[in-house]
Design a protein that fits this description.
With 862 residues, this protein is mainly beta. It has no helices and 61 strands. The radius of gyration is 31 Å and the shape is elongated. It starts with a strand and ends with a strand.
Length: 862
């Protein structure tokens, strides 16, 4: 299940818009980015840009095509950069790893000045790096558009002497290389009496002044400091202050907004003063500011009176923030409504024109919400009546807070929020990101739309066991399993079709997917390149007259490029009477009307077996009906566990099945191959190799042919092996290890081999950092370096050439599958789980390269 929430909208001011949000999976949150270049009308498919759980992203652009994003990832600060206006992004890299005294980090922020100086600042826990062990402020700087960064250093000059925690840093940028950092300092223990501190830089963030304070030494509690610059030398700093009772325990009795302003580019600051009049039982907080020219400012904040609802207030300054008007309510119904007006954001969309947006909810049901906006055409002096942004059947209010929007000075604005649609709606059952746009200074807005075209598909808990096929005419169909996408919440089989560039929206193969409760799994796909596509899978959905609860095999056919599918038919005709599980099917065709499915089953001839055997079933009418299952190798007298078969075929009725055979209870594993020259009527078997000690690590062998008499079988026993035949599978040479510089402790498995039938081959596999000593083939817990690799150019019967290419996401990848055509196109798809410790979900990744086995330079979550 992917819940999307906390969107942030950014604009370059030159026509590029980004929406950045967090995608919640069962193992954590990940940063996603969508991009628009037409004012928010259309959005490029959202990408995942973090490979471990990440939170609190912050992005910035210099307006010339360079973007930098930062976030907190576990105990480190990471960044990514784009130099082509958000089209491509660099691999996430740690900024904080150079700080050896840092044991944890807080929320990072990033900013840039007009001279190419970038600064990232963040709080860090000094841990045991030296007394005192409290939180300090760190920073790193780049002068080459984020290509290189200085080592992380402490920003606050009092770090070695103070014993207070410094948190919540914010950055402001003015002209002439002036920067201001502002943050909150609180006692490490005891009563929370916060002070507002700041430091300035006059050399583009290279060095910082001694720490100064706006507030200190009193019994008030200051919170949430921030600083704003109008870019012309005017600055305003704000925070809100709580006054407390003293006895018997401190309790807030009011909260007021305080400010300090500067008119000499942060050289000097005014004495802190109240922006809001003092009043008991009045609570003012969450203030935000926006400049409107060199001297005008507007401030908006939330106000609550004791035991009443909250409203939005505003005040205006026309003298560079020195004085402010008396507060007025932005929501014109403030005196009569009982609604909560919260989380306001405000943007300048034109000279004198401001737009504020916020969340409106009932006080008793916080999740029942509406997003509203109000306009001001006089720099914030007055505001229009609140108007809804999301009154639409497509945007039922959700459970995640927050609306974000950005505006440029051409009258365009984009707003985004998270919504959880009603069951069965266009976005599925999970939370997704909705966007609206305005092209007329925020006067009118279009209907809300889902930003991510896969919003319905991403609601599932997992996408896995994916495979692809091509007809050689640049048509591709990919199949996978996913749960939670249909009304009953079970696991179903989905397909997507690609003709040329774009993938179609996923559809369920089974037309009864919304009605059945059985779990469908382990799909496989093949095509005869003549218009017929067949998908086969395993399911425990029971039909009429079948009392058992075992898994059986089903197949469905498409003659419409995977966009429509026939009702499923049983592949194993004994489904109504058998009690064994039929699992892990694979399918192939000789492109002459014959199709064979192979699978593993523990049915046996007496119904009492526990080990698995390899079976096949044949169809001579493009999958409409299937012959009775036949055993390739096994039976009650074979005390072996035969599993994980693969199958391939070529013309002249030559078929090959490969699988893994393991003795019982499992100390020796053998790689097996069976060959048929009469269309699967009979088979001859051959043992390729026997492995001991590593027996449980021998996975599914993969078999492929170039349709010219050459065959390759690949397998893994922690190392990759290949077996080659140049006589149409009659004999196979001795196994050869496939080595590409893997260190001795690396684990390499899940091999998949494919041919373009034009002299090129591709091998894809997953590589990990090794195994836990004494385990049964379980990869070590840290899977951060595990990813899918590929190489190409096999000269039969020689060795592989070319270095492997690693997926850019560097997620924990496994079970790759490759499809190729003779025109130089290929698809690599695999399961990935960004979690680094015991992955608990997976999704399918699709990548297309323009040449077989070429280094893949773009990956997308599908």
């Amino acid at each position: 299940m992917e819940d999307d929430f906390s969107p942030q909208v950014y604009t370059s001011g030159n026509g590029t818009w980004l929406v950045v949000w967090l995608a919640q999976y069962v193992n954590g949150e990940y940063v996603r980015i969508a991009r628009s270049t037409d004012g928010g009308a259309n959005w490029a498919p959202a990408q995942i840009y973090t490979w471990r759980p990440a939170v609190t992203p912050s992005f910035k652009t210099d307006g010339t095509g360079v973007w930098i994003g930062v976030w907190r990832q576990q105990t480190s600060v990471y960044y990514t950069r784009s130099t082509d206006d958000g089209v491509n992004w660099s691999y996430p890299t740690s900024l904080s790893s150079t700080m050896t005294t840092s044991t944890n980090v807080g929320t990072p922020v990033v900013d840039v000045d007009g001279a190419g100086n970038w600064v990232v600042a963040w709080p860090y826990d000094s841990g045991t790096g030296g007394p005192p062990a409290d939180w300090e402020i760190a920073y790193s700087r780049s002068t080459d558009d984020g290509f290189t960064w200085t080592n992380g250093a402490t920003l606050n000059s009092n770090a070695s002497a103070d014993s207070r925690d410094d948190q919540g840093v914010k950055l402001g940028v003015g002209p002439s290389g002036r920067w201001t950092a502002i943050w909150l300092s609180t006692p490490a223990t005891g009563f929370e009496e916060g002070d507002v501190l700041y430091a300035t830089s006059s050399d583009g963030g290279s060095t910082w002044s001694a720490v100064s304070t706006f507030t200190s030494g009193d019994d008030t509690d200051d919170k949430s400091p921030n600083v704003w610059s109008n870019g012309a030398g005017g600055w305003v700093a704000t925070w809100w202050r709580s006054r407390h009772t003293v006895f018997p325990t401190p309790q807030p009795i009011s909260q007021d907004i305080f400010f300090s302003n500067s008119t000499d580019n942060a050289g000097t600051w005014s004495v802190p003063a109240r922006l809001t009049p003092a009043s008991l039982n009045q609570y003012d907080y969450h203030v935000t500011l926006v400049p409107d020219g060199p001297t005008k400012w507007a401030a908006l904040w939330e106000r609550r009176f004791y035991l009443t609802d909250s409203d939005l207030m505003s005040a205006v300054s026309t003298d560079s923030g020195a004085t402010w008007t008396l507060p007025l309510a932005v929501n014109s119904d403030a005196t009569s409504d009982s609604l909560e007006e919260t989380e306001v954001t405000v943007q300048r969309v034109g000279p004198g024109t401001l737009v504020a947006a916020w969340k409106r909810s009932t006080k008793s049901i916080r999740d029942s919400r509406e997003f509203v906006y109000s306009r001001s055409t006089d720099s914030g002096v007055s505001w229009s009546a609140p108007t809804s942004l999301n009154v639409s059947a497509a945007s039922v209010p959700g459970r995640f807070p927050g609306v974000s929007f950005a505006g440029d000075l051409t009258g365009r604005a984009v707003a985004a929020w998270s919504t959880q649609a009603a069951p069965g709606g266009a976005t599925g059952f999970d939370s997704d990101i909705m966007v609206v746009k305005s092209n007329d200074l925020g006067t009118t807005w279009n209907a809300p739309a889902v930003i991510d075209p896969t919003a319905f598909a991403d609601q599932g808990d997992s996408g896995s066991n994916a495979g692809s096929a091509t007809d050689g005419a640049n048509n591709w169909v990919t199949v996978w399993q996913a749960d939670g996408l249909t009304a009953m919440g079970d696991t179903d089989i989905f397909v997507s079709h690609r003709a040329g560039v774009n993938w179609s929206a996923p559809i369920a193969v089974n037309p009864s997917a919304n009605l059945d409760t059985g779990d469908d799994s382990n799909p496989a796909i093949a095509t005869d390149r003549a218009g017929n596509w067949l998908v086969v899978w395993s399911s425990n959905q029971k039909g009429s007259g079948d009392p058992s609860t075992d898994y059986d095999l089903f197949a469905s056919r498409s003659t419409g490029l995977g966009q429509t599918w026939s009702p499923p038919v049983l592949v194993n005709s004994n489904a109504a009477t058998d009690f064994g599980n039929d699992v892990n099917p694979r399918i192939a065709t000789d492109r002459a009307g014959r199709w064979i499915v192979t699978w593993a089953s523990n049915e046996g001839t007496t119904g009492s077996k526990t080990e698995y055997d390899i079976y096949t079933a044949t169809s001579n009418n493009n999958g409409s009906t299937w012959n009775a299952p036949a055993v390739v190798l096994g039976g009650d007298l074979a005390s072996f566990n035969d599993q994980h078969p693969d199958i391939a075929a070529t013309t002249n009725s030559v078929w090959m099945v490969s699988w893994r055979k393991r003795d019982w209870p499992g100390t020796v594993a053998t790689a097996m191959v069976a060959r048929s020259t009469n269309g699967g009527v009979s088979w001859t078997t051959q043992s390729l190799a026997t492995f001991s000690l590593k027996s449980l690590r021998v996975g599914r062998p993969s078999v492929a042919t170039d349709w010219a008499g050459n065959w390759v079988i690949t397998l893994s026993d922690q190392r990759l092996w290949k077996y080659v035949s140049a006589d149409n599978g009659a004999t196979f040479g001795a196994g050869e290890q496939v080595l590409f510089g893997a260190v001795s402790s690396d684990w390499e498995g899940d091999p998949f081999v494919a041919s373009d039938e034009n002299g090129k081959w591709t091998l894809a596999w997953s590589r990990g950092p090794g195994f836990i000593s004494g385990s049964s083939g379980i990869p070590v817990a840290d899977l951060a370096t595990r990813g899918v690799l590929s190489c190409s150019d096999l000269t039969l019967p020689g060795a592989w050439s070319g270095a492997p290419s690693v997926d850019h996401g560097n997620n924990a990848g496994q079970f790759p599958s490759v499809a190729m055509d003779s025109a130089g196109r290929s698809i690599l798809i695999y399961d990935t789980s960004p979690d680094t410790v015991n992955p608990t979900y997976s999704d399918s990744l699709i990548s297309v390269s323009t040449a077989p086995g070429a280094t893949v330079d773009h990956w997308s979550l599908y």
